[in-house]
Amino acid sequence: MRHPVLLFATGGLAGGLATLWIRRRYLLTTVSGRSMEPALHDADRVLVRRTRRIRPGQIVVVIAPDPPLVHLPPDEGPAVDALPAVEPLPQPGERLLIKRAVAVPGDPVPRERFPALRDAPHAVVPPESLVVLGDNPDASWDSREFGFVRPGECVGVVVRKL
Questions:
Q1: Residues 6+ apart with CB under 8 A from 51
Q2: Residue 141 structural domain
Q3: Which candidate, 57, 46, 157, 60, places its Cα nearest to that of 99?
Q4: What per-residue string of b and e applies to 59-79 under the rule 16 or more CB within 10 Å gives b?
Q5: Are the CB atoms for 73 and 141 separated by under 8 Å?
Q6: How many domains does the chain have?
Q7: What is the CATH number of the domain that holds 54?
Q8: pLDDT (tens digit, 9 = 90+) per residue, 60-107?
Q9: Does the pTM exceed 0.70?
Q10: Most-buried pick from 1, 50, 126, 147 (CB within 10 A)?
């Protein structure tokens, strides 16, 4: 008969490894704002699979681009200059955006719909970059203002709403 402590330790180790694997592969996050309506609403919880393989039309989670925002996205409230002076600007990488991938590497750059990309030197979306757009463009801060989502800024793809 095996010792109960050994069984408990082995089970704890297996559970810990499984938890680590799940946390490295998936992210659970909450939607904030109206930029993805009607597909996603404020306070919806979504499961995100961490990946860099993106297809056009998929809903993706990306890191807000550098430099820090001068103004908050329209769905996040008042402009930063309307906030108290003690409120610091968000630091790069602290904010996540949920948007729909419109163009992926190798697709033609959609210059006509995205003012920030009109002077892009590329004919096609560069490797590991994306062009993203909110489903509710009037309430969305997306590639129309900041251009390409750069390599390394894509967190993953929304798998499902919970």
A1: 156, 157
A2: 26-161
A3: 60
A4: bbbbbbbeeebeebbbbbeee
A5: yes
A6: 1
A7: 2.10.109.10
A8: 999 887 654 444 444 444 433 333 333 333 344 468 899 999 999 999
A9: yes
A10: 147
